[in-house]
């Protein structure tokens, strides 16, 4: 039997959220209401009153389950669950202290559980590329995920932010309408995770964004490269605040265009073009293994609403594309591409639900493939060996596909059943393509 995946309080809360599905609709003030904003309610009006005074509190649990239907490295059936608890607070310092255009935030997270991809889908000797549960990773520990302050100048056309944060909070950010890792959120952390840290990891950083025209803005940031931030030995590692082992800085620059009237019948969209340079030394991924002075990446994020259903501006068809190109000398994943479609409000009776279809691809650097071949030949292996512990699986591209339905029971409860297909898990041709069934559950308390 698998080890317990969630601490008892978290397990009880997730079980409670699932029980909601069997309940009848009630008024907005009742516990099981389909209009209920928070599962635990408005605290007799105190929650709304605190928000009006500048204090907004959040608490949520995300659970992602997955089971292998067919294929993968190990076809023995398994059911694996990953979970994440999030506790946060946002502060409007204009209301609280009279600091105009100034906000602050603090966020704590705790992850737990297991990954089906690691347990069944991939060859355990190969480095991990995709994951069928995007919230798995970066350790089963408590983390300080956010602790920052942001202030605006020049009528908020210039915004300055400093503190502890994830890099995709402000650069290479994207929608997350899926459970599969590469189809969810910013892409850089999936391919250059040694220098680009996404949620739930935070790091010291600062950024400035300048809105120089109504539809255009330019952002630049400076973030530490500090391997201590991704240690997972104990909960104290998740609260590392020192900079003793900083190896350099990652500097992203991003140009964003958010047209208000120009395209697609005035439907909203956003287009971002970015680049980064890291000053930290980076090892060559090829046979030479030489040390480079830094590394770079480029990206394109695009999201557009294509259609609108009647007078409801939120219902309709959306599309997104995310592409990343990495430094071939220093990065094992040369590029990633993601294309996704989702339709919000597919039925009049379910205006807040959505249907999603996404396709995403990892392209492994052929210099890495050549090194793996050379390593195996040096050990006397000239073909795939499923048993040898020192055999290095040869990696190529990995393709991920997901079809899902998001059932928004209420603003407080979301369920997302999904079906995933993984072509060449971890890029290893000898591993059978895999079919995975998944279920995401999110509860806002």
Descriptive report:
There is one protein chain. This protein has 445 residues and is mostly beta strands. It has a domain at 125-140 and 151-444: Porin (Beta Barrel), CATH 2.40.160.180. It has six helices and 18 strands. A 16-stranded antiparallel beta barrel has the order 1-2-3-4-5-6-7-8-9-12-13-14-15-16-17-18. A two-stranded antiparallel sheet has the order 10-11. The longest helix has 13 residues, at 366-378. The radius of gyration is 23 Å and the shape is globular.
Write the layout of secondary structure elements.
Layout: H1 8-19, H2 46-52, E1 55-72, E2 79-92, H3 93-97, E3 102-113, H4 116-121, E4 142-153, E5 158-165, H5 188-191, E6 203-213, E7 216-225, E8 248-257, E9 269-278, E10 282-283, E11 291-292, E12 295-305, E13 316-326, E14 333-344, E15 354-364, H6 366-378, E16 398-410, E17 413-423, E18 432-444
Antiparallel strand pairs: 1-2, 1-18, 2-3, 3-4, 4-5, 5-6, 6-7, 7-8, 8-9, 9-12, 10-11, 12-13, 13-14, 14-15, 15-16, 16-17, 17-18
Fraction of residues in β-strands: 35-45%
N-to-C CA distance: 30 Å
- Given helix and strand content, the structural type is mainly beta
What is the level-2 CATH architecture name of the domain at 125-140 and 151-444? Beta Barrel
CATH superfamily (homologous) name of the domain at 125-140 and 151-444 = Carbohydrate-selective porin OprB
Rg, alpha carbons: 23 Å
Principal-axes geometry comes out as globular
**What quaternary form is this?**
single chain
Query: Share of helix among residues?
Result: 10-25%
**Mean pLDDT metric:** 91
Give the CATH class of the domain at 125-140 and 151-444. Mainly Beta
Could you name the CATH topology of the domain at 125-140 and 151-444?
Porin
Query: Which runs of at least 5 residues are low in confidence (pLDDT < 50)?
Result: 1-27
Biggest β-sheet strands, sense, barrel: 16 strands, antiparallel, barrel
Strand order of the largest sheet: 1-2-3-4-5-6-7-8-9-12-13-14-15-16-17-18
Record field, number of beta strands: 18
State the order of secondary-structure elements, H for helix, E for strand.
HHEEHEHEEHEEEEEEEEEEHEEE
- Report the total helices: 6
Signal peptide: 1-28
GO molecular function: porin activity
Organism: Acinetobacter terrae
Protein name: Carbohydrate porin
